[in-house]
Amino acid sequence: MKRFSFETATLVLLTISGYAVAQNVQARYDTSCGYLANKIHCYGGATSIEVKKSDTSMITLDILNLSQSTADELKTKWTYVTTDTRGADVRPRDGPQCVLLPDGETMILSGGFTAGNNKLNSQAISFNAKSVSWADYGSYNEVPYGVRQIYHAPSTYVPDHGIAFYGGLETNYNKSFSIPGVNVTAYQDDKSDIRNFGYLSLTFLDIRNPSNPWSVYPNQKNTPTYLGRYQTSVFDAKSNRIFYFGGKYQDPPSLTVIYYTFKNSVTFDMTKGEWGSQDFNGVGPTTRTGHSTTLTNPDYCFTLNLDSYQWTQQSLQGPDNPILIRTQHSAVPVNNDTLFIVFGKDPINVPTLSLLILNVSDTSRITLLNSFVDPNVPAVDPTTKLPYSENYTLSKGAIIGVGVGSAIAKKDTVGHNEGTSAMEVDWDKIETKYVPAPTKPFGYTTEASDNNSTMIDRSTMYFQETVQTNNKLQRPNVLDGDRLTDTSDIKLLQRPDGRIS
């Protein structure tokens, strides 16, 4: 869900743009945000913690015209946006997959949870910032069970293929669904209308083919035994692999939810068509309990180097005034040197309007800024970008990953709310994902498909030629995060094939 580059790069996020309406914007969390047309755009999100209900509001922050403004000033400058739905179903949805395409104009929103057995008519929709309008790209339709409404699945853009989905959760499901040798009912909570698995294999959405946008990578080898959800994913062009971080899964008949460790990562090799695992070196993120007091020590931020596969613990220091400690927030990369952290919940579980501005021009020395100066406007006194602290260091070297946060220990069972605990406070979702921009023109169109859905038959999977590794490509810079949860008393993923030892 995001777009940003240190050199020429792409990342995954959600964005909205449009006609601005002057109106007070409420604090919110779980928004889908991104940077398009020189503005930060945010879609949806929830404003109440008593009853979580996402809305369809689209808001924008015009940081170009607000250049030189402080973080405190910017938080009051959000405005609502009016868009043209063009018949697309943009009803409220929780936990959708959100990806910003590298054309710099288009956001993809796929799936999402809708309560009350009210299935979405438009599962996959796109928003275009130039036309300020939506388009419908049909639903994921799997033979013979029909449309599957999946959410909280990791998603990442793969050049020349589209958006890669895997795992996740499903709602409004077909109860006749079957998998050979698997007791599907053990994964279902009919009362909550949640099935604890989503995409069964690596699935792609490519809107360049509007008449048939959905496809499945054929003949996948060594498919993982367990399907995760709440994971994040990154495509690394140098190794031509997709990396999956964090998340959790279920191992029926046990109702206990199991958390993946950060000792390794599940991977998919786009050249070989093979699932595997990459072990990591060093001391990575550990399990921990507690709330904001836990974050006073340095054991909550780590960087991962994908050349050496080495975890490195970092030390973060910042002022007490900005709300550094937050959860369920959005990270928005801007230009090549700035990262905005917007909305989320504060340490006492209250939605916040406050925002953070990070200088990421030097990945070995990321600093917290008091104000934002857009390079597209005339030069100003550089003192306006002085950091709060000269010691506010986030990462060193060739950094491609970040895991930060602290969480209260918990066990989940089927049917229990898997949302963030009221005491969970992490500074994770600097979950931007950088991948090299393709060398070809994208040619994306926002024209909607004539079909409402595309049928996927797992017995006759078709896919285009796989991406080939280019040895000249440079390793992308990636900042990625996930919630770190206590797993001291539950089983952990250890084997490279994704099985439990």
Task: Describe the protein's architecture and organization.
This protein has 501 residues and is mainly beta. The protein has one domain (9-460): Neuraminidase (6 Propeller). Helix content is 1%, strand content 28%. The protein contains one helix and 35 strands. The protein has one helix at residues 71-74, and strands at residues 9-10, 19-21, 32-36, 39-43, 58-61, 79-82, 97-100, 106-110, 124-128, 133-136, 139-142, 146-147, 149-151, 155-158, 162-167, 169-171, 188-189, 194-195, 199-205, 214-216, 232-236, 241-245, 248-250, 257-259, 264-269, 274-279, 301-305, 310-313, 330-334, 338-342, 355-359, 367-369, 401-404, 435-436, 453-456. It has a five-stranded antiparallel beta sheet, with no helix packed on it. A four-stranded antiparallel beta sheet has the order 7-8-9-10, with no helix packed on it. The longest helix has 4 residues, at 71-74. The protein is globular. It starts with 8 loop residues before the first strand and ends in a 45-residue tail after the last strand. The relative contact order is 0.18. The model is unreliable at 1-19, 287-300 and 382-501 (pLDDT under 50).
Key traits:
mainly beta, disordered N terminus, disordered C terminus, Neuraminidase, five-stranded antiparallel beta sheet, 501 residues, 1 helix
CATH topology: Neuraminidase
Strand content: 25-35%
Structural class: mainly beta
Query: How does the overall form come out from the CA principal axes?
Result: globular
Q: Could you tell me the number of beta strands?
A: 35
Quaternary structure of the protein: single chain
Give the helix tally.
1
Major sheet characteristics: 5 strands, antiparallel
Keywords: Kelch repeat, Repeat, Signal
Organism: Mucor saturninus
Protein name: Galactose oxidase
Signal peptide: 1-22
